[in-house]
Structure formats: structure tokens, C-alpha cells
Amino acid sequence: MSSALHIHLADRHSTYRCAGAEHTLPVGSATLAALLTADPPPPEDLTNAIGLLADHLEDVVREVPASGAAEEILIHGPGLATLVAVEVGAPTPLPYTLDRPTAEEVFRTLATEPSAARRLNPGLPAEEVHSVLGVSCAVVALLRRLDHTELTVVAVAEAGN
Question: Which of 67, 71, 72, 106 has its CA 20 to 30 Å from the CA of residue 57?
Fold first, then answer.
């Protein structure tokens, strides 16, 4: 039986569950997006947003020890389906596995575009033009800090938490 780290990425918090242990962090996608006020955000603001979640992930590794050895990451929450839609170019059924190079490329594309250009991305609703930056920062932080090659975006019903 494979171990999975289940993540609920909410706007203002995120919850991590694996092997019966659970930990909630006071950082979510909207928390990260709020740090990105310039259009487009400068590299240092993006680094700080990614670093904020990465630093908090130390607590997850300590409080949910199996998370460090999890064979897969399953994640759900607001904006994740949009991130997948931007990658694919259209709304896409979940689950969808996003590998690290692709997540990094989507992040670079979104983060370097001013909002006027970003809103032209197929699959990106106008109301999520800014919030998708926080989601993208969170995904990149998770893959980097947990040193995983991919994660799977799942629908809430499939998330198991």
C-alpha cells in the first residue's frame, strides 16, 4: 500500500495529512498572493512567497513524519483546477498529475506576465488572474521543499480529507 500525503490548500491555511497524522499551517494560496502586490511581481516578492510556505513546511515534516517519505502528493483546494487549466489551455478533468518541470514553467509564465497579459491565458478566468499566482507559488514551494517530482491535483471528493 503506497503512502500518500494529502494536502488541502485553502485560501488562508493548508492542511497536511499522512499516515494518521495531521498538521495545519496558517499559510494558504491567498496568503501567498497577498504578498505579490506589483504587476508583475518582482523576483524577490516571488521568492519570499515561495519561501514563506517552504519555511512552514518544516513544521509539517516535524509534525507529520510520514510526509517526508510519502510516495505521492494528492492536493485539492480553490484555484488548483485553474492552474491545471492554464497548463493544458482549457478546463481539464481531475485528477491531473503535474510534474515539477511543468509546474515550474507554468509558474515562470504566470509570474513574469503583467495581469493584462496573464488574463489572456486560455483556461484562466478573469476573476482568478491574481489568485492563481498564490496557487502557483504554493505548488512550486511544495514540490521544491518536499523534493517530489510531481503532485496530483484531485477533486475534493477524491481527496480523502
Answer: 106
